[in-house]
Structure to design on (574 residues):
């Protein structure tokens, strides 16, 4: 059995003993067209841990992240976030849980027609649903001040009154991070946050995101495609293939070959109804310098 | 075998050299539709009482109207201006009320924001009824309900605007990018907050364009509502025609023309500025 396989088992055992901030059991999701995006995912993420999700396109990373807060309704399985059973939560409880989970999207998803400051203030809507927080000009001085502090933290305070669509891609993603800060979240889910950015802007955004996660001792689950970013920033790597968990290990315990093997293997071309490649086969092949 | 049919060669492969026929043969449904429409047109034409005498006398009657209409009765302009102003005010108030009321109905009618499929069907049906009944018919209904005058006109314009704007607002909402909506949902925002912070601002430029078009349409429509007693300049136009004061009628027609053209021009400029500059909700 490979080193990575041992690590995966060890990590799961270790996490099972800790108070997991994110706990997923048997999570599955099938889209209406029959595509099975997730198949029996088990995952525990400890408080303060930074987990990087890797995998080909359509491997289930985005679906997993969206399913965690039920932006996509899972077909089956159990999810616990910060001690709350997400699957059993009613509308009010679900909003409370979502309020504790900040999300950074690949497509950034700011409201372009409103100011940068309004976008940041929207982060507080989960804990203060008052209509005063709909737009910056309606918000209380305390809320505006807090939003300005969040913008200051991401280096965009001078842009507060600009419309969101007047910023560059990197700046917009920093506004999205400021919105997460405003949320005062305990968990951050980031879905390929640098996929739409050039390498330099991507590095800046990753540096900022990880600094904020470290400062506030947040728990992070971040999907990425860039192995070097995963190595630089993650504590632990979880790889998905065809909706199944393929690999789970500490970054320090995995070699570059292990990680490269995830993308070198022709995993993405496998038919969705085929079982995933054996983990041991894949990692052994990667470690022995197999096909890249 | 007819041209355009696929043929197979001896070895079983498909012969693709034959091009398809230029015209498709109409189906029975299409043929019946055309025959029914043609029958209705012939039946309608036969009931028009189009005698040669009527056709021959038409140019003389038109000339009579034009010769008595010019020069227009400019001395009546100050009196008519009050009725014209009333028409414009009816259009503005009716459109404003209509746009405001169409927004919640559109949110209920759009598939992605409706709370339930039954609510979606009910809201869509309401918009269809409001849009399908012609504005002059609504005006007659409101004249019966609230009496003669501008209130009936305002209500007519309001209902007409709800039917028109509500449909376009709902369609725009259904086309919206889900990204900002998901981002707001992910913060734990309530349904109302998601609509106020993501749905409406994202659709705002389109809403603005549609609303300005509604205003332009309302000014045009308001000018004739008076023909059935729903206030505005149309009342004066009706009276002028009944009394055969064609110079006054011509003055009113020219005033309507100027106001409608001005409204169209202003609305066009405003819509262009809004859409080019990106209308915003700060």
């Amino acid at each position: 059995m490979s080193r990575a396989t041992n690590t995966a088992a060890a990590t799961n055992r270790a996490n099972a003993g800790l108070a997991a901030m994110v706990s997923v059991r048997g999570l599955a999701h099938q889209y209406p067209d029959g595509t099975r995006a997730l198949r029996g995912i088990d995952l525990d993420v400890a408080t303060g841990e930074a987990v990087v999700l890797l995998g080909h396109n359509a491997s289930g990373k985005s679906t997993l992240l969206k399913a965690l807060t039920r932006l996509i309704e899972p077909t089956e399985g159990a999810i616990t976030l910060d001690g709350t059973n997400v699957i059993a939560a009613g509308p009010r409880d679900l909003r409370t849980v979502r309020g504790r989970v900040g999300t950074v999207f690949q497509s950034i998803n700011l409201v372009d027609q409103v100011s940068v400051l309004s976008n940041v203030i929207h982060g507080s809507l989960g804990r203060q649903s008052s209509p005063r927080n709909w737009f910056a000009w309606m918000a209380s001085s305390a809320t505006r001040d807090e939003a300005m502090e969040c913008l200051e933290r991401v280096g965009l305070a001078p842009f507060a009154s600009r419309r969101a669509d007047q910023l560059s891609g990197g700046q917009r993603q920093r506004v999205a991070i400021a919105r997460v800060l405003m949320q005062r979240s305990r968990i951050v889910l980031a879905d390929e946050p640098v996929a739409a950015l050039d390498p330099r802007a991507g590095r800046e955004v990753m540096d900022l995101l990880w600094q904020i996660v470290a400062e506030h001792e947040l728990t992070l689950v971040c999907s990425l495609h860039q192995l070097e970013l995963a190595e630089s920033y993650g504590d632990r790597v979880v790889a998905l293939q065809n909706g199944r968990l393929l690999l789970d290990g500490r970054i320090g315990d995995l070699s570059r070959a292990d990680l490269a093997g995830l993308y070198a293997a022709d995993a993405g071309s496998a038919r969705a109804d085929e079982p995933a490649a054996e983990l041991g086969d894949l990692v052994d092949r990667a470690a022995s310098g197999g096909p890249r | 075998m007819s041209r355009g049919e696929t043929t197979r060669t001896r070895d079983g492969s498909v012969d693709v050299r034959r091009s398809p026929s230029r015209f498709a043969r109409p189906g029975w449904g299409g043929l019946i539709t055309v025959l029914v429409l043609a029958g209705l047109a012939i039946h309608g034409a036969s009931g028009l009482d189009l005698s040669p005498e009527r056709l021959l006398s038409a140019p003389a009657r038109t000339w009579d109207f034009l010769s008595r209409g010019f020069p227009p009765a400019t001395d009546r302009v100050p009196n008519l201006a009050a009725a014209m102003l009333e028409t414009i005010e009816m259009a503005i108030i009716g459109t404003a009320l209509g746009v405001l009321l169409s927004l919640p109905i559109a949110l209920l009618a759009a598939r992605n924001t409706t709370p339930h499929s039954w609510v979606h069907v009910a809201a869509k049906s309401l918009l269809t009824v409001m849009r399908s009944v012609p504005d002059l018919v609504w005006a007659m209904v409101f004249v019966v309900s609230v009496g003669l005058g501008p209130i009936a006109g305002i209500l007519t314009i309001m209902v007409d605007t709800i039917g028109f704007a509500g449909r376009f607002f709902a369609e725009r909402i259904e086309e919206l990018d889900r990204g900002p909506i998901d981002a707001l949902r992910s913060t734990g925002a309530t349904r109302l907050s998601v609509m106020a912070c993501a749905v409406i601002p994202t659709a705002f430029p389109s809403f603005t364009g549609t609303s300005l078009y509604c205003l332009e349409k309302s000014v045009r429509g308001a000018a004739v509502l008076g023909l059935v007693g729903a206030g505005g300049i149309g009342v004066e136009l009706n009276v002028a025609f009944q009394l055969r004061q064609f110079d006054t009628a011509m003055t009113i027609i020219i005033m309507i023309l100027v106001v409608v053209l001005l409204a169209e021009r202003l609305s066009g400029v405003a819509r262009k500025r809004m859409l080019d500059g990106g209308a915003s909700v700060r």
